[in-house]
Amino acid sequence: MKIYRQLVQLFIPMFILMIFMVTSCSDTVQSESTTIGSSDIHKSNTPVVSNPQNQHFVFSNPQAISARGYAKVGLSIGRKLDGTVSAVGFHYVKNTPNWKDIVSVSAGGGHILGLKNDGTVVAVGYNENGQLNVEDWQQTIAIAAGVAHTVGLRSDRTVVAVGWNEHLQCDVSNWKNISTISAGYAHTVALTHSGAAIATGDNQYGQCNINDWKNMTAISAGFFHTLGLNADGSVLATGDNKEGQCNVSTWTDIVSISGGMFHSVGLKKDGTIVAVGNNEYGQCNVSSWQDIIAISAGYDHTVGLKSDGSVVAVGNNQYNQCDVSDWKNIGGP
Length: 333
What we know:
Number of helices: 1
Number of strands: 23
Order of helices and strands: HEEEEEEEEEEEEEEEEEEEEEEE
Shape: globular
Largest sheet: 3 strands, antiparallel
Radius of gyration: 24 Å
Strand order of the largest sheet: 3-4-5
Helix content: 10-25%
């Protein structure tokens, strides 16, 4: 009996320890499974990026490439897979090489924006209207640069804006439940979670007449016109059409849209491009492009991101904004 009691005293603590270890392992596996499952769900819809402080931001439609400019000044910027950027064009782009941890980019009339993986924003370029005053922005999940104003979408789905506001293009403080933003010359447009379109700013050409657009999947503000993408791959357009930039009613199978100064481009689901509008500098000469996964229409140039991470460009190259042939490893998070 003495030996039996000694064995019981020896094995009971070991048995309890084993139960504790099994329970702990089970909890760990369950926790990891939940985390992985959550990440997979997000990845299938919208990119989730962890920053060094282990915060998670669900970014809205991050842009790997962006083209813009104003008055013949051209800008092009691309986000590399390592979170740094490549930029060409107007001389302010020389101030971007030290950027890192970038998840999305946007080019304006004379300024460039970068959205970082911690939800903050960096900016360089002209600041005469305060369009670079974004240093205090936090919890940002999307950015859009107009010609002289800057718009940001916050994680709570509200919108902030700074810069030129002569036409009330920055009056977005009452917007809620926003999923997508885009900024034009002097107007700002957005989509709500339900796919309804809203706009504020200059409406001289009817570019803000989008209140009846419903169930949209994407929206793009050109300089004086606005494009909207339907779920069936068709496209709507309103605003200035002097150069035919709104003649998109025959487009089909479109998955992405971008409005420039006087031209519009669309990415088809087969990786080819369609374009309408002014072609003075060959900015619409994109019919031969293949394997394109992202597009952006600048002032009078167009850039496209290929599936292999390289970039192509056509149009006005006065400021070397089309010198992207050596860009590699461009892409989103």
